[in-house]
Amino acid sequence: MHRPAARGRRSRRAWYDVTMTSTASPYPVRVPSSNDEPRILLSNVPWEAYVAFRDAVDSPSVRMTYLEGMLEIMSPSREHEVGTKQIARLLELFCLERDIPLYGYRSMTMRKQKKERGLEADECYCRDKDGEIPHIALEVIVTHGLLDKLEVYRGLGVREVWMFENGAFRVVELRGESYEPISASAIFPEVDLARIAHFATQPDQHAALRAFKAELR
């Protein structure tokens, strides 16, 4: 009668061990509480199984992050998706008004078998020309994950990651083999992320977009 409980304890311990290995990352990880977005962490998942599972589940409400045999599956909350869409609309409006060529890929799956990495960003873009690997990835953080997504992005070669949490952006740039914090985007130096953050936190999306458009003109 006590064996299921023991397995549960081992599972929680495994989660703890995974999260403790990434405490130095600027993309923080922790064990989720019962109020978090639903997340599952699986270990010892072969690459072929991850690819088959990802391809079989054709739903934008399911996100998968794969890192060297570890697979995290999560479902973003309404707050997560609303925040993502509002930031995307603001950035796209800015680029349109400033005539900056922008190529968007939403939350397409990026993966590299050789690096044993794969994920879906909340949004991702290239500037000036289409590309196989996006120049920037947006991560809206409502609840923290079980895997270090920056380590996945590093292996994929994404140049910048914009992390939006508690109404503010943190930007990191890939320099050599690691990400380093930067004060503003090097790919979009024209973009004032503080202004994007201001309008991204407004409750009325339409009013926020109209106000931002008026400010740009």
Characterization of this structure:
With 217 residues, the chain is an alpha+beta fold. Helix 5 packs antiparallel against helix 6. The protein has a single domain, classed as tt1808, chain A (Alpha-Beta Complex). Helix content is 35%, strand content 25%. The strands form two sheets. The protein has a six-stranded mixed sheet. The protein is built from six helices and eleven strands. The N terminus is likely disordered. The radius of gyration is 18 Å and the shape is globular.
Outline of this structure?
This protein has 217 residues and is of the alpha+beta class. It is built from 6 helices and 11 strands. The protein has one domain: Alpha-Beta Complex (tt1808, chain A).
Question: Could you give the topology of this structure?
Answer:
Blueprint: H1 3-20, E1 39-42, H2 47-56, E2 63-67, E3 70-74, H3 78-97, E4 102-104, E5 109-112, E6 117-120, E7 123-127, E8 136-140, H4 149-156, E9 160-165, E10 168-175, E11 178-182, H5 193-200, H6 205-216
Parallel strand pairs: 8-9
Antiparallel strand pairs: 1-3, 2-3, 2-6, 4-7, 5-6, 7-8, 9-10, 10-11
Helix pairs in contact: 3-5, 3-6, 5-6
CATH architectural grouping:
Alpha-Beta Complex
Give average pLDDT, whole number. Answer: 88
pLDDT < 50 runs, ≥5 residues: 1-23
Range of strand content: 15-25%
Estimated helix fraction: 25-40%
Largest beta sheet: strand ordering: 4-7-8-9-10-11
Main structural class? alpha+beta
Rg measurement, Å: 18 Å
Which fold name corresponds to the CATH topology? tt1808, chain A
- Kindly state the number of beta strands: 11
Taken together, the total number of domains comes to: 1
Oligomer: single chain
